[in-house]
Specification:
- The protein is an alpha/beta fold and 458 residues long.
- The protein contains 17 helices and 20 strands.
- It has helices at residues 25-36, 51-59, 71-74, 91-98, 106-111, 127-140, 155-160, 173-177, 204-211, 231-239, 287-302, 307-316, 344-353, 375-381, 393-399, 412-422, 444-456, and strands at 17-21, 40-45, 63-66, 79-82, 102-104, 117-122, 145-149, 166-170, 186-189, 223-227, 245-250, 258-262, 265-270, 273-278, 325-330, 333-337, 358-362, 382-388, 405-409, 428-431.
- A hairpin with a 2-residue loop joins β12 (258-262) and β13.
- Residues 322-435 form the Mur ligase C-terminal domain.
């Protein structure tokens, strides 16, 4: 399925001046694509831009500014693409909309200039692993595939370079907020749990609605793959029916069309076309990864990938950096980097998968976390907690009654050294923060890499 060019709306004859707010990966990629398509382009970044991005803009003769927004020039725009990091209700964005200037996302803009088949993957947790795994299967099948969105190189830049016939896009709620006509042929929703509520007026229903924008333009010809065990998703689908064909996956119940676990096998059925493989041959461990595998394999089934290719891919996939990544074993203690766990639900999956007694490194910028759902797992699996953050009071209050040892630290090096002292042979040390990273680190990647470096320096 491809979108016909008749549906494309952002053409040179209708929009000649594109302003891009944000000079990061998505902004620079959009600038290159827009210049290629004949737009007049201006990139404006309120912060300081990376030197490499400024060099790319200069090489392409694209006008830019940093550390300011020149509103007089910006308000001349026919169309604005904003970085997903800029809130929807930022004062400048509100002013633009007040003047009737359309504000969209990179995903929306770039999708107008490709007829490639699009697979869009969203969810509160698991979307990076599912996107990477889907990409891995399709590449192993010999497809000309591009991976983009919230991962990899900019979608717009890849469209400009014409690198793919199929795109696998990891989509955050922030990116989906800026779509109007974007239509993935296959949409995947890994799950929905409360996250980023500070961007959605602390209203869960606004966050859910944002996620479900992925289905907004789908038709009966398209597919929606989703977690049927997730009550939030099921409730929304009952209240707001979608047009696309639903293919659920579940660990808890059998499904007629979709994916489930039966007799210790993944079983996928789509119109009498069946796929199965034993769960114990999956390379990724944990129940959550069984779900990620089911979602990715369902996509591959829809695209008629050879069953043997799907099985081999699921057996050999090595996972993504910062997601339950085994770093080193020291004195028979396994150190695990799960820095990408920036919310409670992600950490729930991590703790659930732990089989050894665990020293848990947790903390950071608390997004209004509800830690109570972790209590039973912490009680069962965690022998000591190492807090890593500027303010650890909520973590201490939540777990002081079920864990005897709670240590406060203010740097990754200190946290890893304390965990080393507390761990005994056969234990695991797990970094799974359940929080954002911005108090002590640039981002979760920086946090994860500092953890790995500190472990290697023990």
């Amino acid at each position: 399925m491809t979108m016909s060019s008749a549906n494309k709306t952002f053409k040179k004859d209708t929009c000649t001046f594109l302003v891009i707010l944000g000079g990061g990966e998505s902004g620079v990629g959009t600038a290159i694509l827009a210049k290629q398509k004949g737009y007049k382009v201006f990139v404006s970044d309120l912060g300081k831009m990376a030197d490499k991005n400024k060099e790319v803009l200069e090489e392409n003769n694209i006008d830019w500014e940093e550390q300011q927004h020149s509103e007089e020039k910006i308000f001349q725009a026919d169309l604005v693409m904003k970085s997903p990091g800029i809130p929807e209700d930022a004062p400048l964005v509100n002013k633009l909309r007040g003047k009737g200037i359309k504000v969209i996302s990179e995903i929306e803009f770039a999708s107008e200039f490709t007829n490639a088949q699009i697979i869009g993957i969203t969810g509160s947790n698991g979307k990076t692993t599912t996107t990477s795994l889907t990409n891995f299967i399709l590449k192993n099948a010999g497809l000309k595939v591009g991976m983009a969105g919230n991962i990899g190189q900019s979608f717009a830049k890849q469209v400009a370079d014409n690198v793919a016939d199929t795109f696998v896009l990891e989509l955050s709620s922030f990116q989906l907020d800026g779509i109007e006509n974007f239509r993935p042929h296959i949409a995947v929703m890994t799950n929905i749990t409360p996250d980023h509520l500070d961007r959605y007026n602390h209203r869960l229903e606004e966050y859910i609605a944002s996620k479900f924008r992925i289905t907004k333009n789908q038709t009966e010809e398209d597919f929606f793959i989703y977690d049927a065990d997730n009550e939030i998703i099921e409730k929304w689908l009952n209240e707001f029916p979608i047009k696309s064909r639903k293919l659920p996956f579940s660990l808890q119940k059998e499904v007629e069309n979709g994916a489930c676990i039966k007799d210790d096998e993944i079983q996928i059925t789509i119109d009498n076309n069946k796929f199965n493989m034993p769960t114990n041959t999956l390379s990724l461990e944990g129940k959550h990864n069984a779900k990620n595998a089911m979602a990715a394999a369902t996509v591959a089934q829809l695209l008629r990938i050879r069953k043997e290719t799907i099985r081999e891919s699921l057996e050999n996939f090595q996972g993504v950096e910062h997601r339950l990544e085994k770093v080193l074993k020291i004195n028979n203690v396994q150190y695990i980097n799960d820095s990408k766990a920036t919310n409670v639900n992600a950490t729930y999956y991590a703790l659930e998968s732990m089989e050894a007694e665990t020293v848990w490194i947790v903390g950071g910028v608390d997004k209004g976390n509800e830690y109570s759902e972790l209590l039973s797992l912490v009680n069962e699996k965690v022998k000591a907690i190492v807090c890593l953050g500027i303010d650890n009071s909520r973590i201490q209050n939540a777990f002081s009654n079920c864990v005897d040892i709670i240590v406060e630290t203010q740097s990754m090096e200190e946290a890893v050294k304390e965990a080393y002292k507390l761990a005994e042979r056969g234990d695991a040390v797990l970094l799974s923060p359940a929080c954002a990273s911005f108090d002590l680190f640039k981002n979760y990647e920086d946090r994860g890499r500092q953890f790995k470096e500190a472990v290697r320096n023990l």
